[in-house]
């Protein structure tokens, strides 16, 4: 990294998340501020391979801070997993005169970026963007706060109908390997039980807790289930199991799905994304590479991409206790 950087490329990759546009906007405008050229790469690593680039000026990112999704589009590129694909990507970056790259995404995105740095010694900085919040080295990932608010709003609505009909609802929320969304929305929406991959409560405890709820006079119940739950059954199997063994429950299942990834970002996510976009550009100008920028205890922080991928972002155990106490 001896040459001064004159042009930075930015891409979004993997699952999209609300706030990615605010991050792109901050990257583009920080480049303008520091008098560096900026190019947007469409469709993540696939666009790098195909040379799908566009010069971005400050005006290209007008009126996007409030928009969900990503204006640069996203993709999960199989070709980038091959050496040939990565060589094509490197050649396109060189041809375009790009001196550094900012990647916005989750651990799959960072894994690809790390490989690229090792092979070509190309400067890269990561920005954590995923609703799952499963990245080590930042308190929150971009999109997580918005997803929490979306899910809580929906569970509140489901509770209205659950309570009118005295029903037991199993609600599946996203989080392939992590229970952050389930745990926090479960507490926020007052769920009776929360099932997350990090904590296998077992079927017996679930049944016991539902029964106790009935005995205490609860007429309806909400169980929030993380899609990556490790209880050994998916949300439909769980509902079937309870239905077969306890026929007096009137059970319904709701899988919230991809609506959790959409929508206008919350103010928190817009500010987080703006801070991280600026920090990513400044980190590269500081001649640092192979790191992810995050916000820890309300300060901008940096962690090696390797650690961001390998280390676990632990759930807060205190929240498990809060959930248990408040669902009595
Ligand atoms: O963005 C992360 C995530 O929402 C996971 O929780 C989920 O398993 C996955 O994306 C599904 O994404 P897709 O349908 O795009 O593969």
Keyword list:
328 residues; alpha/beta; Rossmann fold; seven-stranded mixed β-sheet; four-stranded parallel β-sheet; 11 helices; 11 strands; 42% helix; elongated; binds 6-O-phosphono-beta-D-fructofuranose
Classify the helix fraction into a percent range. 40-55%
CATH topology of the largest domain: Rossmann fold
Shape descriptor: elongated
CATH architecture of the largest domain: 3-Layer(aba) Sandwich
Q: Count of helical segments? A: 11
For the residues shown, what is the average pLDDT? 96
The CATH class of the largest domain is identified as Alpha Beta
The count of strands amounts to 11
Please report the distance between the alpha carbons of the first and last residues: 58 Å
| Rg | 22 Å
Task: Give the neighbour order of strands across the main sheet.
Answer: 3-2-1-4-5-10-11
Strand content: 15-25%
Uncertain runs are: none
Could you give the order of the helices and strands?
EHEHEHEHEHEHEHEHEHEEHH
**Could you say which small molecules are bound to this protein?**
6-O-phosphono-beta-D-fructofuranose
Oligomer: single chain
Structural domain count: 2
What can you see in these coordinates?
This protein is α/β, with parallel strands linked by helices and 328 residues long. The protein has two domains: 7-143 and 265-310, Rossmann fold; 146-261, Phosphofructokinase domain (Rossmann fold, 3-Layer(aba) Sandwich), CATH 3.40.50. It is built from eleven helices and eleven strands. The protein has helices at residues 20-33, 44-50, 83-95, 107-120, 144-165, 180-188, 202-215, 235-245, 267-285, 305-310, 317-326; strands at 7-12, 37-41, 53-55, 100-105, 124-128, 168-173, 193-195, 221-226, 251-255, 291-296, 299-304. Strand 7 (193-195), helix 7 and strand 8 (221-226) form a beta-alpha-beta unit. Helix 1 runs parallel beside helix 9 and helix 2 crosses helix 3 (83-95). The longest helix is centred in the middle third of the chain and has 22 residues, at 144-165. The termini are far apart. The relative contact order is 0.17. The model has no long low-confidence stretch (mean pLDDT 96). The structure holds 6-O-phosphono-beta-D-fructofuranose. 6-O-phosphono-beta-D-fructofuranose is lined by residues 15, 130-132, 174-176, 227, 261.
């Amino acid at each position: 990294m001896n040459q001064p950087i004159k042009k930075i490329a930015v891409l979004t990759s993997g699952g999209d998340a609300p706030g990615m546009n605010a991050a792109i906007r901050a990257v583009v405008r920080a480049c303008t501020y520091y008098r560096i050229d900026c190019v947007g790469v469409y469709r993540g690593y696939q666009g790098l391979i195909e040379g799908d680039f566009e010069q971005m000026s400050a005006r290209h990112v007008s009126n996007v801070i409030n928009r969900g999704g990503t204006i640069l589009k996203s993709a999960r590129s199989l070709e980038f997993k091959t050496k040939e694909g990565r060589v094509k990507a490197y050649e396109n970056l060189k041809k375009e005169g790009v001196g550094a790259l900012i990647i916005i995404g989750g651990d799959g995105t960072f894994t690809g970026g790390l490989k690229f740095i090792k092979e070509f010694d190309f400067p890269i900085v990561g920005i954590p963007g995923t609703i799952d919040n499963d990245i080590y080295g930042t308190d929150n990932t971009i999109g997580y706060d918005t997803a929490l608010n979306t899910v809580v709003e929906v569970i509140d609505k489901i509770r209205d109908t659950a309570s009118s009909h005295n029903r037991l609802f199993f609600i599946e929320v996203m989080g392939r390997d992590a229970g952050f969304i389930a745990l926090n929305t479960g507490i926020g929406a007052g769920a009776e039980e929360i099932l997350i991959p990090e904590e296998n409560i077992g079927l017996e405890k679930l049944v016991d807790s539902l029964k106790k709820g009935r005995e205490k006079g609860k007429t309806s119940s909400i169980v929030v289930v993380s899609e990556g739950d490790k209880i050994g059954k998916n949300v439909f199997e769980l509902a079937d199991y309870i239905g077969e063994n306890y026929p007096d429950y009137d059970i319904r299942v709701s899988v919230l799905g991809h609506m959790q990834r959409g929508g206008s970002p919350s103010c928190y996510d817009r500010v987080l994304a703006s801070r991280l976009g600026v920090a990513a550009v400044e980190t590269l100008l500081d001649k640092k590479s192979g790191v992810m920028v995050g916000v820890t205890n309300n300060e901008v922080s940096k962690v090696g991409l390797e650690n961001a991928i390998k280390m676990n972002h632990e759930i807060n155990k205190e929240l498990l206790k809060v959930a248990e106490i408040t669902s009595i």
